[in-house]
Amino acid sequence: MTNKKNKSYLKAFAVLATAFSFNVSAAFIDIGFTIDGNTWDNPFTVQNNSSAGLEITQFALDLRPNSDSFLCFDEVVNSCHSSGGLNFKSVGSDDVGFLTYSVVDAVGGIDAADFLSVTFNGFSSGESFSWLIDVDDNPDGSVFGNDLIGSLFYVEMSDGITYQGIIQGIDGNDDAGQLVLQGVSSTTIANAITSVPEPSSILLFGGLLLALTRIKRKNII
Hints:
The chain has helices spanning 2-26, 189-192, 201-220; strands at residues 31-36, 44-48, 56-62, 72-73, 89-91, 98-104, 115-123, 128-132, 135-136, 152-157, 162-170, 173-184.
């Protein structure tokens, strides 16, 4: 019996060590993402602050966690609200290597476009990318940065790892939202479109730590 407990302990420790190593990698990643004011006429901005010199290859903004507010990307070509839409448009130069974007109706959310992904070739550390796209809700249509609090943000870096964060509020700025990175995503951006949003792996890390503590207590007893 003791041998089985030791094996369980070692197995949990191995998984925990893996999760920890991934989150150590995430420490090199610093991605700035903000939206301040009305999404109709205020740009979204992503800043690559990677201290490891990694490039951003793709990022995604996932509105599905806010499905109760019926948040959706409202483009003219794919309208989800009667107020009229605004197509995705980059602001400023394309020096960061902007390639393409897509807006889709992802699995597990509302029946409307709620998942935006943008791809790049050469979005280097120290560079930023800004774009406009209308985000609407039900019933009034007006969506400000703070209305996006709770939405998920994925970013794939040139190290091949997908990182995940959540949009949170900004102290002293009631109509804005900003990205807070939480850890390594358990899925790629491509797979996230066809799967229901999951908690970030940093929460998994905390769960594994708790499980490991319980195992140790049982062994002591």
